[in-house]
Amino acid sequence: MEQEHEPEDPFAFEEDALAATALAVEDLFLGRDPVQEAAMYWARGDEETAIATLDQFLADNAAPKEAWWVLFDMLRARGDRRRFEEAALAYALRFGCSPPALAPAHEQAKAGPPLLLLPERLDVAAMSALQDKALRLAKVSGALRLDASRLRVVEPGGAALFLALLKKLIDKGVRFQWRRLDLALGAIERARAAEADDRALWELEIVWRTAAGQGEQAEALVLSFAETFEAIPPVWMSEPERVGCETTASEGKVARESEPAREDLILEGDLDERTIGEVVQEILAFARDHEVISIDCEALRRVDFVAAGMLYNAFAALKGQGKQVILRNVSQVVNALFEVLSMGQVATIQTKIY
After folding, report:
1. Cβ atoms of residues 169 and 136 within 8 Å
2. How far is Cα of residue 82 from the mean position of the Cα atoms in its chain?
3. Which CATH architecture has domain 113-250?
4. In this structure, are residues 305 and 276 in contact, taking their beta carbons and an 8 Å threshold?
5. How far apart are CA 347 and CA 349, in angstroms?
6. Judging by DSSP bridges, how do beta strands 269-271 and 245-246 pair with one another?
């Protein structure tokens, strides 16, 4: 029996079509220049062939600087110091100028703390992916921005696990900036009304009211907690310096004006058909509250054909809603794929320049 798609999922058919025709999409590269051919191999994970294809092209002295930049991005992504240094020497001799450095010139810290979007439903099932991403981001940044824009439901099990995650991050020295705590507080109030005897829900509300600058309400809640449970909640939950504070829209605007390189979302690692669905949903959820969706691609290593196609569809949908997508710090090798797919028609692409 043929499986039917839910009609409210606007990307269901597009995702199936892209998965079924990924090889056909690759045919777009056949007969194109060697740089785009190398990008094709890179996109499908054949990194050695990608580098060999580019090496052969670069042996021709007529190859432009931009082709060398693609090679540097590939070698940097692989952490291949020896071949990077060999290419850097050849580049310097060929063009008479300094080659790119092995370490990225762009400092991610200048882009502001990475963003972590809370799920629509904060439950046990959602916490596994949320915790994995939070701990991964915490490894590269001493701060996180936690956005509750899409949070609507909080369940006791999810609240307990989320509190444990916050404590783990705090113990690692991670600082928090919060956004849309009004929605988080609305969700926790509804949850506590339904589960009045659940301690985790009380404790999470204390954390969020403290972060929202509602000191009196948080203190009153601590007293009510003590009367209800004959215990005192952990002290850290009422300490603003530990739970963080909320960043308002106006403060965010001032920050963006004073730090023009600051980003909102982050694409990182390898995006493929297994991971792209969650990424697209995160982008679309973030876009509900933003007219400009700025995405830092500094740590984006590879995008396969299915993932690139789904990004194109998502960006096209956002453009149709009058929103603007900006991709910053896109590597030259990823941009070679984007150019063939005409990604520039639906998003503003700002590439790394060496």
Report:
1. no
2. 30
3. 2-Layer Sandwich (3.30)
4. no
5. 6
6. unpaired
Distance between CA 327 and CA 298 in Å, rounded? Answer: 10
Q: How far apart are CA 137 and CA 282, in angstroms?
A: 15
Residue tagged 């009058």 (tokens): 322
Least confident range from 112-121, 241-250, 282-291, 313-322: namely 241-250
Q: pLDDT tens digit string along 122-179?
A: 999 999 989 988 988 888 778 898 988 889 999 999 999 999 999 999 999 999 999 8
Q: Is the whole-model pTM more than 0.85?
A: no
Round to whole Å and give the CA distance between 33 and 285: 37
Fold agreement between 113-250 and 259-351: yes
Q: Which two tokens stand for residue 143?
A: 């701060």
Q: Are 123 and 153 in contact (CB under 8 A)?
A: yes
Tokens of 156: 């006791």
Domain chopping of the chain, boundaries: 20-95, 113-250, 259-351
Residue 111: helix, strand or coil by DSSP? helix
51-110 pLDDT per residue, tens? 999 999 998 768 889 899 999 999 988 888 899 999 999 999 888 888 888 765 444 434
Q: What number of other Cβ atoms are within 10 A of residue 44's Cβ?
A: 17
DSSP E strands: which ranges in the chain?
Answer: 115-117, 121-122, 143-147, 153-154, 175-179, 245-246, 265-266, 269-271, 292-296, 300-303, 324-330, 348-351
Q: What share of the chain is helix, strand, coil (3-state, %, to 5)?
A: 55, 10, 30
Q: Which of 108, 163, 160, 161 is nearest to 137 (CA)?
A: 108
Q: Does residue 31 sit in helix, strand or coil?
A: coil
Q: Which CATH class is domain 259-351?
A: alpha beta
Give SS3 for 247: coil
Q: Which residue has the higher pLDDT, 190 or 289?
A: 190
- Quote the CA–CA distance of 326 and 329 in Å, as a whole number: 10
**Residue 167 and residue 235 in contact, taking contact as beta carbons nearer than 8 Å:** no
Instruction: With beta carbons less than 8 A apart as the criterion, state whether 204 and 154 touch.
Output: yes
